Amino acid sequence: MQPILDQIDTVVRPALHNFQAAEKALTDALQSGDDSTIYTARQNAMLAARQATDVLHHLSDFVLKEPSPSLSFAKIEDVRSAVAARCVFLRTAQPVADVALLRDVADAFKHHRPDRPSAKVLVSSDVVPISIGWGHARWDEGKWDSPEQVIITTKGGDKRALWSVLQNVFDAWMALLGRPLPPISQY
Question: Does the global pTM surpass 0.70?
């Protein structure tokens, strides 16, 4: 299991931290009011979003190919199912399908338009930094006072904050691996 934990510590956690820092920089840039700074911060937030999405989603592939005595799977669907079974909304008891949603976001980033009809994200431009108003996302999911953040808009019109999806999937991995959960957003 040590190679899996090393992958999390050296690849996944740094990508999640980078995304978090990029979203904070976007909030700071918006407060500055400088158009050039805001433009650059949006670009940086999207690059960090792509990286965090990619490495967290592909942790399933890593685990499949790096079996351990306590964690071994026959196929990728088995890995995703094991993680999805532990995925809850921001540490509540409410199950959430964020493992599948993260996969859809990763596919949209990679292919622009996912080929799977079951994908909940239609196109990569449905994952962008935008401001959403009160009541337009799940309770406790968006940034306070609704500054721009990377939002996923699903085919059904639901809006989800990417940071929340990343947090939920990361927490599901920690539960699967029997690891303690650090405070939210500290990975």
Answer: yes
For residue 166, what are the domain limits?
A: 2-177
- Give domain status of residue 123, yes or no: yes
Taking only the tens place, the pLDDT of each residue in 18-76 is: 999 999 999 999 999 999 999 999 999 999 999 999 999 999 999 999 978 888 999 99
How many domains does the structure of the chain reveal?
1
Q: Which amino acid is at 62?
A: F
What residues have CB less than 8 Å from 149, skipping those under 6 apart? Answer: 23, 26, 27, 45, 129, 130, 131, 142, 143, 161, 162, 163
Sheet order of strands, 149-153 included: 127-130, 149-153, 159-161
Residue 184 lies in a domain: no
Least Cα distance to 152 among 53, 24, 44 occurs for: 53
Amino acid at 102: L
Query: What are the CA-CA distances from residue 49 to residues 23, 61, 117 (Å)?
Result: 9, 19, 23
Residue 182 belongs to some domain of the structure: no
Residue closest to 82 by CA, chosen among 94, 64, 66: 64
Identify the DSSP state of 180: P
